[in-house]
Design a protein that fits this description.
- This protein has 13 helices and 17 strands.
- With 425 residues, it is α/β, with parallel strands linked by helices.
- α8 links the parallel β8 and β9.
Length: 425
């Protein structure tokens, strides 16, 4: 299995691995010799498309007789393009991943099997219940699929279809099983969690959080990515009353300029983003706010970029993931005039990356000498363990005992190479 893209894809890969194992298969490393290679693809950027094709060719060289399947967003939006790739045998879209084994076992050698349906007609959530997830510290739980917002740059609504929300009963059932097997932290994920419940009678995202909060054994709850407009003061206050909710929120901001946001078809203004950040900081101590930013969106003038830069300097986020605009065929933004020169995109990207590093360093420096609870996830060297604080700062500590999967209190001592060295208390 080889995964590209978002946390939803990671969850779906874990679910497909579980399905394969239940059918008697052994999962091996993506670089190893295998009978079947499955790439769960992404199509958000051209880089994702290129990585997909590179893996396909490498897999076929490793075992020329293998079956290669491509699933996910790339195969959904461009099935004909994927089918032209010589190495590919099976093409499955964003639907029917739950049937991946029977589709592959039913394919005919020498012929391409294409299983891609019109996702715009889908009305119900495709259940992929995971019983045995790899690891034992943090588990991603997919709670919804699809998006109805149609941001002008985004191909995802065409790849994933409309909003389909997972029932709370099914979410709770899966989380209870994961808690029983030792997972301490749950990350709620979806294509657009702000839309959770749009297709249900009454239930909203806060109801999901409350239900997971009641499950014994789960000590932390995160959300993978959230829209700024869902962070109303009422919603933030409700989350803050639930002590398992981590003080770490990834706000998908994209720009700090109102004119740019309007062309992107985003549903908020820069001042509303600032209000959301202020509300989170008032209700969560030491909250870490991270974001995605697109530079070089069509029509972004120097003045618009400077507004974004100034906004990001003022809001002072913990980390920023900077993306240079990549036009996706089939989206309104790809047809917009005033596409930005690649060199300008690069210079703007470098400027925001530098600002992000300053903010990250400052946030971590403010934590020095303090105590924090760290969930240790893995041993990276003999006696050296790595984990994260509740606000998602990476910490490494020395321990003579195996502390993988355990939350320990740590004194945050020194910053080294983007991590904090901590001393177990």
């Amino acid at each position: 299995m080889f995964t590209l893209g978002c946390k939803v894809n990671q969850y779906e890969t874990n679910a497909m691995e579980d399905i394969f194992e239940k059918n008697g298969y052994e999962i091996v490393d993506p670089e190893e010799f295998a009978d079947i290679y499955v790439i769960n693809s992404c199509t958000v950027t051209h880089i994702s498309d290129r990585k997909s094709r590179q893996f396909l060719r490498r897999a076929k060289r490793t075992n020329p007789d293998s079956i290669i399947a491509v699933t996910g967003c790339y195969s959904q939006v461009a099935p004909d393009e994927v089918a032209k790739i010589e190495e590919v045998d099976v093409i499955v879209g964003t639907k029917d991943k739950s049937k991946i084994v029977q589709i592959i076992e039913g394919c005919t050698p020498g012929e391409k099997t294409v299983k891609v349906e019109n996702v715009m007609k889908l009305k119900t959530f495709e259940e992929m219940h995971i019983e045995h997830m790899r690891g034992k510290t943090r588990a991603f739980i997919k709670i919804q699929d699809g998006c109805n917002r149609f941001c002008s740059y985004c191909i995802i609504p065409y790849a994933r279809g409309g909003v389909r929300s997972r029932s709370i009963d099914n979410i709770v059932s899966e989380v209870r099983e994961l808690a029983r097997t030792g997972f301490k932290e749950i990350v709620l994920t979806g294509i657009n969690m702000a839309c959770y419940g749009d297709d249900l009678d009454g239930d909203r995202i806060i109801d999901v959080i409350r239900a997971v909060h009641e499950i014994d054994g789960i000590e932390r709850i995160r959300m993978s990515s959230v829209e700024p407009d869902m962070m109303s003061r009422e919603f933030v206050s409700q989350m803050a009353s639930l002590h398992k909710v981590c003080p770490h929120f990834h706000l998908s901001i994209q720009s700090g300029c109102d004119d740019t946001l309007k062309r992107m078809n985003r549903r908020y203004t820069a001042s509303e983003v600032m209000e959301a950040a202020n509300a989170l900081r008032e209700h969560f101590k030491d909250v870490a706010l991270t974001t995605d930013i697109i530079v070089g969106f069509p029509g972004e003038t120097d003045e618009e970029f400077e507004k974004t830069h100034e906004f990001l300097r003022e809001i002072e986020l913990f980390q920023m993931h900077i993306f240079k605009f990549s036009p996706r065929k089939g989206t309104p933004a790809a047809k917009m005039k005033e596409q930005i020169n690649p060199q300008i995109k690069s210079s703007r990207s470098e400027k925001l990356i530098a600002l992000s590093q300053v903010n990250t360093d400052r946030f971590m420096e403010n934590l020095m000498g303090r105590e924090a609870d760290v969930l240790f996830e893995k041993e990276i060297m003999p006696g050296i363990y790595e984990g994260h604080t509740s606000n998602y700062v990476k910490v490494v500590s020395r321990s003579s005992e195996n502390i993988e999967g355990i939350i320990k209190k740590v004194k945050l001592n020194e910053i080294k190479e983007g991590k904090i060295e901590g001393i177990l208390i």
